[in-house]
Specification:
The protein is mainly alpha-helical. Strands 1-3-2 form a 3-stranded mixed sheet, with helices on both faces. Strand 2 and strand 3 form a beta hairpin. Helix 6 crosses helix 7, helix 8 crosses helix 12 and helix 12 packs antiparallel against helix 13. The protein starts with 7 loop residues before the first helix and ends with a helix.
Length: 362
Amino acid sequence: MKIDSITQKQLIDIKNQLNKKYDKIPLNNKKELINCYSDIITVDNILNSYYIPPTFNEELTFFDYLITLIDKITDAEETLNNCKKYFKVLNNYYFNPGFYELYYKYQNQAYSNQDYIDMVKEFFKDKEYLNINLKTLFKSNHFTLNFFNETYDNSCGAFYYLRKYNKYIAFIPNYQSIEKGIIMAHELTHGTSLVENKDHLLSTSKTAFREFDSLFIELLACDFFKNINESETLNRKRFLHATIINSINTAYEKKNIIAELKKLNLPLYIAVQNLSSINPLYTIDYIIDVFDTSVQSDLYYSISYLYSLKLYSIYQENPKEALSILKNIIHLNSTKDCLEYFQPIEKDINFDLQAYKKSLKL
């Protein structure tokens, strides 16, 4: 099988065509305007992440950092107010204040990109409709699989879908370890879900579960690749779990900082500079670090992961049932529907997060 990739020139051509299409869309056709603009932003993100090196022509001043921080805090507060329902779920898992060190070293594995593709295809073989959808994806002229050695912004994989072109674009890091295969399974799951339901990743109301399917499959892929290197698959699970717990803790820390800032009853730009006088931990550098990620990223990956662990627990007892649940969720229309879907089955899920954490030796 030929491994296709997409070039910078092709992406620029697509962007130019999208800009022309956007200019011709009537202003009253809001759906088409949003879809086209979304594709333009997506292409820009791909170009900036994988093709165009960043430029550092201007030195940022303290004032620049402060303005950026104020914007992030303001956005975070608004998002936190809109996402209170998610904390009802996260409250059950906020059991370990503090942060994990996210570092481990993989061993080199002598496998080609094609070897990893073949292994991932083998992994999907018993996954019913996901396997059928994966075959559809690979047969499609609208799918490109890209392996990258370095990026300017990303060190992990990514999957993009351009609705106006019906184009699927996957990026896989060229790691010399089985992590490449695990990440490939994760990213290609986004593609199999899109084949199943084109609105799966694109519905803003469903964003909280946008990583649910791929994180569930990633856990299964770790088990599959144990036959090649068991210690590395354990490392991957540990890294994933630690990353999510850090995200949960970061979301709560954002809440704590915003609450402390409000107590000062000062303009925000003055409050962030004076908070350390009340709490020595909350220095400007620390606050900048905490707000480096978005609340959306913290919450949505966490929600997706916690529910993927529940589905993973079901899969251990009944793979067919777990895959059926996943398919039903892929076809739901909103986060609210997803949360409600899980409520009646949660009590039947034999899943102990503390025991799972212990199995990872964290």
